[in-house]
Design brief:
This protein is elongated. The protein contains twelve helices and six strands. The chain folds into three domains: 82 residues, Dna Ligase, domain 1 (2-Layer Sandwich), CATH 3.30.1490; 80 residues, no CATH class; 105 residues, no CATH class. α2 packs antiparallel against α3, α8 crosses α9 and α8 packs across α11. The chain is mostly helical.
Length: 335
């Protein structure tokens, strides 16, 4: 009996010491690590390790023993599968949750979207007014911004940014965002230009960018864009004026009333494709990938004319007689 009693006491002591040791460990793993009321943001760069994260957490006062965090990452295997990105760790997130987020690439979803069809002025207005971004004085001057983007000081910013949603994080600047969007546009345009269809009337990739912006603004239909590009190319090849309404609207700027009038078509601007032949001097908006593909891979037909049908699509015609008939049909449908 005495032996059994001693054995029971020993087992109780063992369990007690295991509990004393295990409870803090379990609390460290699953208990709240991120304290306070605000998230902790961390940018995990290529080559950084769990140790780097642990030191950042220690610097913020969340960790007193970084080695515990380091070994937790090793034991769970999360240290070997960290994903580069920007993370927000929420109040009361545990050490295990912090590591798991990085191992599964659960990056912060804060973003800013640059929309295809926007002008450069609209892009700048959005990024310079967003309170989540750090604002650089470089953006106050178009010339200094052009230089920061690697463009000539007197270059146009129209069409220079890739339309997309861009992830941001605290401390990210509006200049960094624009540099990133411009770099992606340059790289994508370069690749698309190399794979273009033959016999296009463009001297440079920039000409294709201009055409893509016209196609972008002329029709919102992805079905029609390749056809629309073909019509505009036919006009260029024949020396005809492009006569694209959005170029007139762009030329009018703040004077545009919301409806094009006959007198508006007489505005004296190099962007007015009713007065001047050829492409306008710069893009008039951010073109989408679809519009760029249309400009570089147009559907070639004998069409020279088009008129809106009133349902978002257009009627295309090869002759002026067909075009006049289509216009009359449109007027009849809208009465």
């Amino acid at each position: 009996m005495l032996f059994l009693k001693r054995r029971g006491l020993i087992l109780m002591a063992v369990f007690f010491f295991i509990f004393v040791l295990a409870a803090p460990a379990l609390y460290f793993v699953y208990g709240p690590l991120i304290s306070g009321n605000t998230p902790f943001y961390y940018a995990l760069s290529p080559g950084q390790t769990t140790y780097d994260v642990a030191m950042a957490l220690q610097a913020k006062g969340y960790l007193h023993h970084p080695r515990y965090f380091f070994w937790l990452g090793r034991l769970t295997g999360y240290s070997y599968r960290l994903h580069v990105g920007y993370y927000s760790f929420q109040p009361r997130d545990s050490a295990w949750q912090v590591l798991r987020k990085m191992a599964y690439g659960e990056v912060d979803k804060n973003n800013i979207t640059l929309v295809d069809g926007w002008t450069a002025a609209q892009v700048l207005q959005v990024v310079t007014s967003d309170p989540r971004l750090q604002h650089s004085p470089i953006l106050l001057s178009p010339r200094t911004l052009c230089v920061a983007l690697g463009l000539p000081p007197d270059a146009s910013l129209e069409g220079m940014f890739w339309p997309d949603s861009y992830a941001i994080y605290p401390g990210y600047s509006d200049l960094s965002l624009l540099q990133r969007a411009h770099r992606i546009m340059e790289n994508n345009l370069k690749v698309l230009w190399i794979g273009r269809s033959p016999n296009l009337p463009y001297r440079t990739a920039y000409d294709a960018l201009i055409m893509a912006s016209l196609v972008q603004k002329e029709t919102a239909s992805t079905i029609e864009r390749h056809l629309m590009a073909g019509v505009l190319i036919n006009r260029l090849n024949k020396g005809m004026r492009l006569q694209v309404d959005p170029t007139v609207i762009y030329a009018l700027g703040s004077d545009y009333s919301g409806h094009l009038r006959h007198d508006d078509l007489k505005v004296n601007s190099p962007y007015n494709t009713y007065r001047y032949k050829g492409l306008p001097p710069t893009p008039i908006a951010l073109p989408s990938l679809d519009a760029l593909m249309a400009a570089l891979h147009p559907t070639m037909t004998d069409y020279l004319y088009f008129v809106a049908r009133g349902d978002g699509l257009h009627t295309f015609s090869a002759t002026l007689t067909e075009q006049n008939a289509a216009v009359q049909q449109y007027l009849k449908n809208t009465q």
